């Protein structure tokens, strides 16, 4: 039976490896945008602003593969869930790529001003967002629902940091109007990072659905 | 009719348009030109023109009576045996017209093998079923060569491991799916380069069907495979190109993924989405 559907399984594996490639690219772009901002590295920021093409290509390629697999093989049960999950994960990863560009754009504007403060929480947020993305994709590859659930739990940490960044920057803006413009860009960056965490969460939820057919959306798991 | 890309300059009549799969590249194995087929006064195929490409699986789909089985049988002149039938047009296999006068039909059918809907093994041993064609065509010089060719054919038909210890048993003792694979082995033994399959899995259970489908998928490495099927999902799973027939006409012919994701013709779309047929 397994042997009889071998070429479908081969195509499914090829689809998964494309998704991983896309995830790797998205994660790298998040890293480069945040690091470019923190290190005031224009060249690094430029790589994010100009390098969207590979992700866009993969976005279309993965959608086409899913479309084709659904049409030609009429997959059922776990195979069907895997392809539906792949369609959704694909959209999430493409959005992460776009958000990395948004961060890079904000970074360009921010670097046109004097630094508001030393950046501590934003790089922390960047690290958490990247880890969430990586773990979500790892859980996809390993079909590991425990790991996927751990990603869901990280989201609160990211939300809390975003609130903290906002409050802190608010005090700077109240004290010195000169900081309003650059501080608003930092607030935007924190918001983009928080959104990246949301997309990683979506990926993790899709993994749980793919593996166990359990829909955990809109039902946050209890904090351990 | 639809606009199609020409793979090579066709030579059909002014009334017909050649159907070449749009994205196909490479040589043409079978070139059908303005083919009409009649059962007595009734025209069963109307002006069919298409190119079939080597080493891929081409599926013919369509509702009952659409002409797909009649068409596949024109490719090795199996319809010749039906009284009162008549063919117009040309079928070229590697540029040679198979309806040319003086053509040796036995040689043609050796080259264009066929597997039918209902498995039809000879009431002989498993070994003899495969060896038969080799013997009458004098294709083995010694007993060991004969045995080697039988083994090779059974392996290609994915049946060897199941029958290797019972080659002298009657073929009729095999299951339906095994009998069908035996018939495929029998067809492969005489080294055809084109294999026609007319509903090869329609009488089999789902597991046996999957084995046949996987076999079809693998056979294309060595053969040009043409399969007629009622089962659209089967066409989608196993074929590279699909031709849709309706009322004796070729409605659409394209890459299988194109046919099943975005067909160009409304009639094709209506058929594959179950709106008629």
Explain how this protein is built.
The complex is a heterodimer of chains A (224) and B (277). By secondary structure, chain A is an all-alpha fold. Chain A has a single domain, classed as Methane Monooxygenase Hydroxylase, Chain G, domain 1, CATH 1.20.58.220. In chain A, 82% of the residues lie in helices and 0% in strands. The longest helix of chain A is centred in the N-terminal third of the chain and has 34 residues. The termini of chain A are far apart. The model of chain A has no long low-confidence stretch (mean pLDDT 93). Chain B is α/β, with parallel strands linked by helices. Chain B has a single domain, classed as 3-Layer(aba) Sandwich (Rossmann fold), CATH 3.40.50. In chain B, 33% of the residues lie in helices and 23% in strands. Chain B is built from ten helices and ten strands. Chain B has a six-stranded mixed β-sheet with strand order 6-7-8-3-9-10, sandwiched between helices. Chain B has a four-stranded antiparallel β-sheet with strand order 2-1-4-5, covered by helices on one side. Chain B is globular, with a radius of gyration of 19 Å. Chain B starts with 29 loop residues before the first strand and ends in a 5-residue tail after the last helix. Chains A and B meet through helix 1 and helix 3 of A and helix 7, helix 8 and helix 9 of B.
